[in-house]
Amino acid sequence: MIRVEVYSTKNKKIGEISVDEKVKVKDIKEKIAAISPKLVVGRQSVRSALKGKDIKDDEAIPLLASTRKVFVKDLGPQIGWSTVFICEYAGPLILYALVALRPRILYSSALNETSLSVTASVALVCWSVHYLKRILETIFVHRFSHGTMPLLNLFKNCTYYWGFTLYVAYHTNHPLFTPPCRILQALGLIIFIVSELGNLSIHILLRNLRPPGTKVRKIPVPNSNPLTKLYNYVSCPNYTYEFYSWLGFTLLTSCVPAGLFALTGLYQMTIWALAKHKNYKTEFPNYPKQRKAIIPFVL
């Protein structure tokens, strides 16, 4: 056993702990929490140098026996990933339905007597199915590699999803809403349905790729489900299908706010996809070279 000094990232000494030379970071976090109750495990980011990079929980700290120091950053109040996801998805599910079924919330009394058009009703079903699917996936499908995220993310994510919901719902459910031609509606609905099934297929594949209670990482490859074949072309087909879903919804409604929602989502998912694509190529030397990050053959 060796005595290790624990410092904050402000170079202020927190205390000392006794650990084995090859101890894993997750065990170091537990010992730090024992000497500093405020720094619960979920709030900690551990590194070997003051300006160093965070070290993963299942890794050992290099040269610990010689440096005998670790640095811990307080990540601030944390909240569970599943809690954040359920909150950010439940809002759109409820808010969109309220605007559609209780129009006097947003529209004047002179307009709220008009019933929903068939297109607006279909859009309501599509929107509701999407977010109900997301909630159920959060509960029954997703396995999170990290238990928590910063509490601030709850407010940022909810502002984004809830705000866009009201923006889109106001236009698609407006009494003066004019549906596009039937061919465009049919095309949009087909794209939406196929993409939702594709997104679910990828999430189930990713769940099965990681055994319960582990953080095992493997190269994802298509299985017997034809909707997973998109893995032959991109590293993050779940993001690809997500964008295609909202592209289909945009065609179905021909609503500009829906298109802006789709493009904003694509921008953010492209950032995530490029980072994951880079990590895949770094982690796996035999990673398929033909894959793009999110858009087949393009990006």
From TrEMBL:
Chief location category: membrane
Domain 3-oxo-5-alpha-steroid 4-dehydrogenase C-terminal: 148-299
Transmembrane residue ranges: 79-99, 151-170, 182-206, 243-267
Record-linked Gene3D superfamilies: 1.20.120.1630, Phosphatidylinositol 3-kinase Catalytic Subunit, Chain A, domain 1
Keyword hit for Oxidoreductase: yes
Membrane topology, record value: Multi-pass membrane protein
Compartment list: Membrane
GO MF entry, a single one: oxidoreductase activity, acting on the CH-CH group of donors
Any single GO CC term annotated in Swiss-Prot or TrEMBL for this entry: membrane
Keyword presence, Transferase: no
Any Pfam family matching the protein: Steroid_dh
Alphabetical UniProt keywords: Lipid biosynthesis, Lipid metabolism, Membrane, Oxidoreductase, Transmembrane, Transmembrane helix
Domain of life of the organism encoding this protein: Eukaryota
GO annotation terms (biological process): very long-chain fatty acid biosynthetic process
Protein family: Belongs to the steroid 5-alpha reductase family.
UniProt cross-references to PANTHER family, sorted A to Z: 3-OXO-5-ALPHA-STEROID 4-DEHYDROGENASE, VERY-LONG-CHAIN ENOYL-COA REDUCTASE
Protein name per its UniProtKB record: 3-oxo-5-alpha-steroid 4-dehydrogenase C-terminal domain-containing protein
Name of the gene encoding the protein in the UniProt record: 109537890
